[in-house]
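Exercise 7b. Backbone tokens:
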């Protein structure tokens, strides 16, 4: 199993709108993908402009397939107006 951890920094004043778009469009898009297990999404308490997205993938191949799928461009387009940066890491879980 692979866990993808993404920190998303959101432009000031757009945090609530971003959270709504993710809940209504982004998370359902991800949940429908082959190889996706659990998805966790939350907003920082100390830094409310920071969101964390945790996605459990069955394999790295499943994650890589997503990056080649048309829905990847759709997901990135959802994020683009809101993000001002961030970081992503992948972890093999035992």
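Sequence design result:
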């Amino acid at each position: 199993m692979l866990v993808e951890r993404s920190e998303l920094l959101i432009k000031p004043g757009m945090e609530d709108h971003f959270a709504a778009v993710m809940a209504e469009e982004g998370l359902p898009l991800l949940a429908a993908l082959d190889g996706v297990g659990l998805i966790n999404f939350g907003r920082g308490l100390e830094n409310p402009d920071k969101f964390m997205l945790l996605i459990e993938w069955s394999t790295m191949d499943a994650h890589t397939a997503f990056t080649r799928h048309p829905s990847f461009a759709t997901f990135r387009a959802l994020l683009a107006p809101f993000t001002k940066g961030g970081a992503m890491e992948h972890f093999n879980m035992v």
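Instructor comment: Strands lie at 2-10, 36-43, 50-57, 83-92. The helical segments are 15-31, 60-68, 70-79.
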